[in-house]
């Protein structure tokens, strides 16, 4: 971080401010999902907006050298909030194929388990940053979510009913995401227990 950035509150906190803008968009998305699920384009725009905050907050933090534990925590909370709202949409919406709904349920369980270990790590002041499996899972889920919303919009405006090819592609994306999510959970659990054990041993000494 250069001297100007160190003494400028705005640039020091810009990445966190970008992250925070994702939260109100998530709450608007939740309102749309609960009361106005027919507004698929609105949901797509809101999801895209939240994902853009996820992209730019990291870029800004690296550029200014202002990455922090608080920023990482806010980033993780926003991502989990977005996924939870999208999972709610996938489960509730009648336009979503049954097989995709069935895959969404265990995905939601895995994400909840990851969130629990994340909270436990934060409470004990342990490093709980996302690992490789988690990043792969998130990338696939993002692709699947955007494709799902786009597919609904295209079919409602121009296409036939839910077609076989899109169903297979979406199911494949979510199944692989589930696999990556389980691997991420197992890795987080093992890492949490290892770091917790090391911390407790350090206190005993």
What is the structure about, briefly put?
This protein is an all-alpha fold and 205 residues long.
> What's the order of the H and E elements?
HHHHHHH
First CA to last CA: what distance?
36 Å
Query: What Rg is obtained from the alpha carbons, in whole angstroms?
Result: 19 Å
Strand content: under 5%
Q: Which stretches are poorly predicted, pLDDT < 50 over at least 5 residues?
A: none
Structurally, how many domains make up the residues?
2
Return the average pLDDT rounded to an integer: 85
How many strand elements? 0
Helix content: over 70%
User: Helix segment count?
Assistant: 7
Q: How does the overall form come out from the CA principal axes?
A: globular
Structural class estimated from helices and strands = mainly alpha
> Main beta sheet: strand number and arrangement?
none
Describe this structure in words.
This protein has helices spanning about 5, 10-35, 40-65, 70-90, 100-125, 130-155, 165-205. It has 7 helices and no strands. It folds into 2 domains: about 1-70; about 95-205. The two termini are about 35 Å apart. Helix 2 (about 10-35) packs parallel to helix 4 (about 70-90) and helix 6 (about 130-155) runs antiparallel to helix 7 (about 165-205). The protein is an all-alpha fold. The model has no long low-confidence stretch (mean pLDDT about 85). Helices cover about 85% and strands about 0% of the residues.
